[in-house]
Amino acid sequence: MSQPLIKYTLTKQGRQPEWLSSDSRAFKGQHSTAANKAGKLPRFGSPQDTIYLGIGAGDPDSDGTPDGYVGTIGSKADLQTYITEVGVAADYKVVTSTLTGIQTATTTGLSTAWAAVNTEEGYQGGLSTSTTTKRTASGVGTVATFTGSGVVKIVTASVTGSGSTSTTVETPITVDPASTLTITGVSTSVGVTTTGTEDVGFTTTTTTTTTNAYSYTDVNTSTSTSKSETTTDGVTTRTDTVVTSETTNYETSYDYAAEATRLWDIYEAINT
Fold first, then answer.
1. Best exposed site among 39, 206, 210, 211 by fewest CB in 10 Å?
2. Inter-residue contact 28 to 10 (CB < 8 Å)
3. pTM summary value
């Protein structure tokens, strides 16, 4: 009995169909894509609005197909075409995390000097720190970037019959210290409201909101700390070593042909 490549949705109950292959080599839930076309009346309702790729337990019945069945894929070429269409729409990329920076700081001193750091008097000296030159490297591909937008400043000015007041709240965009932040656009909106009555007076409030659009590179900084102690003639020396690492995500093109070969080889192995 053939076990074909099948495009399917979840059942109306939101579960994987029972008619998918139970072979340990089989796959399901691969390369999900929207089942409904944008701007068209929906063909599928929730939870059946996503199409997946998997292997069925048998050929579909020409007299009718089960709940969740969408169609089959009959050739490797058709499989690659389908994966490519799904991947291009979803902007498939291969993301590789690469260590692109590392630096070590070593702090050494007597245990008494370390202990003073946490006393009421505070640090009194006696610790020395040496830092290595930062070592850097590059990965393969293009550095991944994210985009976003956020309110960075709100200025509220109020005017009454007796005077005026103004407050400013700034919220800077924060990213990883090793990431590169680029402001790609600035927009300002102004809102004016007036409250009060002639008897008590009017208050006019003007709110000016500044929003920045931005992009930043996908870099993550992490630190690890290790501590060691040595005692000689009753005198204890403590050494703390802090390693700071920068990891950058690089993007390369997705290999649709290789993925089609991987899935087709599984299909053929099951059906041999």
1. 39
2. no
3. 0.77
